Each structure stands twice: as C-alpha cells, then as structure tokens.
C-alpha cells in the first residue's frame, strides 16, 4: 500500500499521472534529495528557487523528478543549499559508499553518477566525499550555454578533442588534448567544441564533416570546508 | 663576480669539475631549491637524508644537480622538508608565476615542469600554488618501481592506454582509458603498463607481446594546509 499523500499538498496541484511523468529513476532520486535538503534547511520552494535564481515551478518539477536539471542549474541549487553539485549527483547513485569507508575506490568508465549536459553528459568520478571533486564531461555542444560561476577554484584538462574554453573577461582559449587550464573561484567559465574545423583529431570514428567534434574533458573542482547540515 | 663559497664546506668534498657534472639546468634548479629549503630548516645533509630514507651521498648529488631524483625520491625529500613534490618541480621552472597572480593560467601540452619517471615523464600541470596538485604521467614502464606513500589523498584517471595500478594490500587493478581510482593518504601505490604482460586480466586488446604499451594518466593529489616556512 502506498504511503498517504501529504495532507498539506492541495490535490488540485497534483498532476493526474505524476508517476508517469518522472524522467528516470536518477532524476527522481536527485529531486527527492534536493527536497529533503531543502526541508532540512527549512526553506520553501519559493525561497530556494529565489536563492538559486530559478523559477519556482521549475524547481518544483525538479524535486518531483519531472525534469532533469542542467549542470548549471544543479550547480546553483547545490550552492543555494550549501552543498555541492557532486553531492547532489552522488545522491542519484543508490549504492553510494558509507562515509567511514576509507578503502580505495575504483570507478570504471561506464560507472559513476551521470548528469545531463548540453549535447553530452557529465560523470562524477567519486562515490564518497573527497578533498576535491573530479568530473568528466563528454560532449559535442557548439552552443557554450550559460556560464558556470562558483566560489571554488577549478582545473580543466582536455582528454580528447578540441575545446573552446570561454573565461569571460579572461578571454577564450582553444585547448587541444593534453592542454589544461586553471581558474580561480569566481571566474565565469563555459566551453564548447572547437571541432567543426579540420583540426579534429584523427582517432575519431566519425567520418562526416557535418558533425561537431566530440570532446572529453576532466574537470577537478576544489572542495571548500563546509558546515555540516544540522 | 660569483658569491664566495660557504666557508663551512670542506674543499676536499668538492668534485674536480662540478659544473660539468650537472645533469641539466632543471636538475640544478631543483637541487639548489632543495638545498635552500634544507638550510632554511637548519637541517644537515645527513639529517635530511635520514628523514627522507635516502643515502647522504645521493642527497648531496641531488642538491648539486649531479643526478635526477626519481619521482618517488623527490616525493620523499619533499615530505621530509614539509613541502610538496610539485613545489620542488615548480622550482625547476624559472618563469613561475607570482603568488598573488590570480589570473587564469593555461598550460599547453608541451608546457609545465617535468620530472623523471621510469621509462617516462611526469608533468606538473600548475604553475602556482593550487588547492590540489594535478600531474600527468606518460610512461611505458613494465617495472612498477617503488611504492609511493604519502599522507595526502590521491585520484588517478587513465587518459589513454592500460595501467596496472598496484595498491599494496588493497590489490592490483587493471584500469583502461576512462577508468579511475581514488585512494586515501597512506595507501601505497605504484603503476606500470598493462600492455604486454601475460598476467594482465582478460580485457586487454593488445595482441603483440613486443612493445610495452604506453599509457597516459592524470593524477590529482590533495594539498594539505601546510605551515609556512619561517
């Protein structure tokens, strides 16, 4: 028997077939985790949406798992909740490790919590809290999208492909495999493929020039000492 | 006019043609930096060698730039000096950035301080102090060499090739491109190519036993808050 619906929820608000509108189990788990953190911090939907610079209906959809947040939106929600994007993503992995588990962890190329990213995917490369957060981004977006801005320092390394890294007033930098960049907290940053040109590396199996070049970057974000949740 | 030699140095100790025995300018700069740090900490050669688990004559050679330290040895010297391997390597790059320079830094694939590594090379991926230390290791060593052991947490990501990561009592792990591992401070670790040996597990695609496979890994090491040098 399903648990009763919260009596405070006006039934007119409830969509007719809510369970059918859940995007996928991962989105549902991330949404539930955001909602739990928000309630623990005694924030209303409106307050958290305002703090994250998102619309209230969008945040509601997100908490219900009816939509997937972009990585930028997830980053904003995490910052407003005093947590990290990685922690929110990690909530999407049911088999996360216990905090006291200090054994080495090995993550295969097909493992790790994944999040949406324009024309690609982000993958969190740890399963438990770490002194820094490594993530892998695979994409082929020609639109750089919104800027990420956060207080932590960050490091970006190009594994394959060619990336145009846009650092706002600090210029745009064309980075190829083996190139890297480090930028301090507060620096706006976003990136896109630089691969429609003929400089796409040779190991790509796509032969058509119509496709934007895919890239793979490793991003390591600083983790600041943070307050424990009450 | 060159500065006078320290009067405490016995002249019988000086090799007849010291300048000719310097391996390269980088080795000389790293050696000079180690010597300066050692003196600032009022340690004798014998004391530092003992703390680092190295022989006194080897350390003397190292300080004079007459030999290049392995990455493991450099790591030990750094730990005994209360600094980091990356900081010692960074001393080898004359154009290091000023500490107060907070602009983004872009490092090309052919840039960065380099250090020796068995059958390969290590490359430091920052030019200034960072909240974590990213390094790239390119090699083809079939001999895993000595274990690294340090108090900082570390993360390893395989960019290309196949690596056999040996974590001591925590087992050996065959990692392919896109795989990664994270291990806590105190965990012994070393790696070798997994391109040729027959003890490599089954998912290796290499068919020729002739050449050892080259790999490229990105290693990110935690930076602990450290005491300032007096």
TrEMBL record, chains A, B:
Which CDD domains does the record match to this protein? Answer: cupin_XRE_C, HTH_XRE
An example molecular function term from Gene Ontology annotations: DNA binding
Q: Which GO terms describe its cellular component?
A: cytosol
Q: Where is the composition biased (Low complexity)?
A: 8-19, 192-210
| Keyword terms, alphabetized | DNA-binding
Span list, region Disordered: 1-23, 186-211
Q: Look up the domain of life of the source.
A: Bacteria
Q: Which InterPro entries match?
A: Cro/C1-type_HTH, Cupin_2, Lambda_DNA-bd_dom_sf, RmlC-like_jellyroll, RmlC_Cupin_sf, TransReg_Diox_bact_type
Q: Which Gene3D superfamilies match?
A: Jelly Rolls, lambda repressor-like DNA-binding domains
Q: Which Pfam families match?
A: Cupin_2, HTH_31
- Residue span(s) of domain HTH cro/C1-type: 34-88
User: What is this protein identified as?
Assistant: Cupin domain-containing protein
Instruction: Please name the source species.
Output: Cellulomonas marina
């Amino acid at each position: 028997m399903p648990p009763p619906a919260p009596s405070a929820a006006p039934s007119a608000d409830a969509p007719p077939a809510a369970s059918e509108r859940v995007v996928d189990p991962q989105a549902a788990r991330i949404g539930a985790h955001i909602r739990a953190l928000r309630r623990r911090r005694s924030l209303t939907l409106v307050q958290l949406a305002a703090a994250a610079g998102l619309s209230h209906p969008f945040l509601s959809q997100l908490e219900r798992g009816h939509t997937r947040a972009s990585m930028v939106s997830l980053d904003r929600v995490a910052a407003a909740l005093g947590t990290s994007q990685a922690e929110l993503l990690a909530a999407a992995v049911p088999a996360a490790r216990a905090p006291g588990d200090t054994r080495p962890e090995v993550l295969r190329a097909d493992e790790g919590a994944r999040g949406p990213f324009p024309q690609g995917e982000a993958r969190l490369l740890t399963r438990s809290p770490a002194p820094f957060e490594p993530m892998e981004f695979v994409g082929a977006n020609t639109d750089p999208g919104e800027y990420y801005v956060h207080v932590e320092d960050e490091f970006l390394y190009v594994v394959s492909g060619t990336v145009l890294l846009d650092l706002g007033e600090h210029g745009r930098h064309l980075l190829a495999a083996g190139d890297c960049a480090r930028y301090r907290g507060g620096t706006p940053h976003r990136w896109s493929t630089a691969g429609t040109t003929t400089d796409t590396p040779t190991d790509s199996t796509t032969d058509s020039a119509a496709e934007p070049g895919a890239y793979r970057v490793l991003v390591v974000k600083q983790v600041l000492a943070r307050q424990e949740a009450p």
